[in-house]
Design goal:
Helix content: 40-55%
Low-confidence stretches: none
Number of helices: 34
Radius of gyration: 30 Å
Mean pLDDT: 94
Strand content: 5-15%
Shape: globular
Distance between the termini: 85 Å
Length: about 725
Amino acid sequence: MQPYTFEFAGRNLAAQKTSMKIGRHEYLACVGRGEGWVLERGPDGEKQYRIAHVMGGKNVYYFLTPMERGRLQTLPVAFDVRTKEWFDTAASGVRHFPGTAADTPVHWTDPMYTFNTSCHGCHVSQLSTNYDLKTDTYRTTWAEPGINCESCHGPAQEHVRVCQAAPEGQAPQDLKIVRTKPFSPEQINSMCGSCHAKMSPVSASFQPGDRFFDHFDLTTLEHPDFYPDGRDLGENYTMTTWRMSPCVKSGKLDCMHCHTSSGRHRFREVANPNAACLPCHQERVENAAAHTHHEVNSAGNRCIACHMPMTDFARMARTDHSMRPPTPAATLKFKSPNACNLCHDDKDATWADQQVGQWHRRDYQSPILGQAGLVDFLRRGDGSRLDATLAYIGSKERDEIFTASLIRLLHRCESQAKWPVLIEALQEDPSPLVRAAAAQAVEGYITPESLKALARATTDGYLLVRVRAASALAAIPTERLPAEHREAVVRAMTELLEALGARPDDYASHYNLGNLHMQRMDYEKALTAYLNAIHLRPDFVPPHVNLAFVHNVRGENDEAAASLRRAIALDPNDPIVHLNLAMLLGEMNRPEEAEQAFRRTLELDPNSAPAAYNLGVMLASDRPFESLRWCRKAYQLQPQEGKYGYTYAFFLRQRREIGEAVRVLKEMLRRGVPYSDAYVLLGEIHIEQGEWDEAAGVYRSAWNNDRLTPSEREAFRRMLQRLEQGY
């Protein structure tokens, strides 16, 4: 970060000879004599944006301009340092995610390109955002552009004083500054990771020496910016892949081994750059050609060529810090990059896969393919490998990043089998990242076991775990919590509220705060939080949807419907929003509109079991044949959902298709689906047909099903007793 000057432009920039078409406007950077600016031409005429600051320099220069209400906005054109050409800032950030429609560039005035909001404190030192939510205004200040000494060593005023006061040639015993030399590798990595991570903050108070997971949550492979095998696709800032590195997992490697405190490479200019891998890999460094299968002094004989290959995104070069070996088999399966073909671009991944297969007796690619396959399946909503996924999460050999990713991706899984594994991960996993992911995943699953595990997690040594557990417990009345942990839950809830207030200019923080107030049934505060989120990010759909829920519980259904329709206007193809609107319209006794909304939901998502079920129930009175078809579809889509199977069987019985109704109900009982009405219905059918022993067997099965509530089981015991006594 540096001020823009004419001297800077002369040294570093080339003229932009032709204007650049972006949307309905054309942009031309004018960096000649005097002030620099970007000229915008469009339907409304011309406008100049002054270039005040320059950010970057290694790969790209971005330019910042002052905007209204104290914002510093990244301008729409940027300069490629390597090619000496101007390019479209926002278009360079398009990901082109595999298997999805290409995403579109964000407009350059979007908050994502606001320095005060998005770039935060990683490009200047001692930043004070000074954001006022009421006026939506910044008064941002910083001590120095770029990263200064105090960013890593803390305030230096006392350090300067004691050093000046010390006798000449004698260092003070107490330097009055943060010394990083005694830091552990984890502390060094956390300090660097406070900027070099794709993360979300849970505090605003990180200091050098602190632990990363006391202040941040880390984005993992649930995000499409990563390929399923963890290679970089979009913008990821290093730390996620870094924590996948075997060298980092050993606890011996930190960032400062290869980099200076200013980020320069320690080993780039030395005679043997492979010395970076000493002392741990001495034998391979001394016999590099035998290990790499490339000639001495060739580019392919460098450790980083294979273990830290370089790719580009948004015209910025970045190296893969996972340090894993090349996996061309993953390229064949997931389209992720591999080191072999980044160099040998005249060959394909099949050739590369054959080469590594010949060189290595051990099939080192299989574990990576297995992990990535689980991520890929869950990303696509395919639960067919659930058993393997749960086994991996609970295994001793699991990787922290893959495990957290799988837990986060399991939110779409309906299987009851996941809960014991998630609860065990919450209680036993050594990684705070995994424990926090498990706490978040358990939210909404309320059993004595889950409540006990979550309450205990509010005493965890890491802030991230405590606030995730507190969030999961937000809707639980205090009297339902284990008595020995109630005070800890209250403390963790206070920490959670502080975490959500760490970024008052962040729309997601207000959205999450609204969710918390909603869970605690504080609807007035939830309403305010959702409105704040919408004000900061009007095109973000979720707060519009949740605002509708608040209006609904307040009895303001017209406002709720209007909020959902605004969400649909923002994203017409979101089936969840259409489903919520359909449910609301049904509640408002507007059946024709509700039916239309349910049908639209099923057009967008043919596998929406709730839409199929509700449409089936809605049509039962006047279109029984179509009703039965939709109820059957809901049951087939989610056979573990008790009301779907019961309703399907109920309507089958109404149509005198008794045999099929009995088959469905028996299948539910065989799987132990905890839905008491299904037992009642099957018992009634057996009694109607004079099958007393079969009915008794049904009631006995219900009595023995510990997934039913104690009161339900007691009711079936009495029913069985009456049946055996002949009523």
